[in-house]
Amino acid sequence: MEAPEVPLEQVTEDVHHHSHGKGGWTLGVALTTALLAVLAAIASLLAGHYANEGMLEQMKASNHWSYYQSKSVKENILRSKLDLLEALGKSGSEKDREKIAGYKHEQEEIRAEADKESKESEHHMHLHMKLARSVTLFQVAIGISAIAVLTHKKLFWFAGIVCGAVGSVLLATAFL
Question: For every one of its 176 residues, what pLDDT tens digit does the chain have, with 9 covering 90 and above?
């Protein structure tokens, strides 16, 4: 899975262009948007990484479950063979009974591994979702900050800072 695209270069350039030659708060907005763009790029990269890891873990879990099913089919075939022999008044071989026990033991190990892979996949996807939300908040913050420069209203800049702060909290808590 690809990392979410963060098309913020033009917005950042526009903010820098509008703040060029001006001091005061527009320079602060420009610096804030540049910082937000960096954080958005980092969060986007990490979100893509964890989405990929989650999908890989899920594929591994699916492979384990398929292997588990194949062992179950083999066990059921042997059980049917033994049941059929008993119905005919014959006894099955001890080797077949040992194989059934072996299949049961293997299935327990395979199930444990499949469950472990599934839990790891869920964990990675949970991190991906937190980071994707963080990216979205950074993008919104940059957009609102651009509006602040264009309208010369500091309230928009403060709103952008708040969105960026929430995005930063999500980015930080993804690893706690």
Answer: 555 565 666 666 665 565 555 567 889 999 999 999 999 999 999 999 999 999 999 999 999 999 999 999 999 999 999 999 888 888 888 999 999 999 999 999 999 999 999 999 999 999 999 999 999 999 999 999 999 999 999 999 999 999 999 999 999 999 88
pTM, 2 dp:
0.74
Q: Are 97 and 19 contacting, i.e. CB atoms less than 8 angstroms apart?
A: no
Q: Would you kindly state where each structural domain of the chain is located, as residue ranges?
A: 9-173
Q: How far apart are CA 77 and CA 114, in angstroms?
A: 23
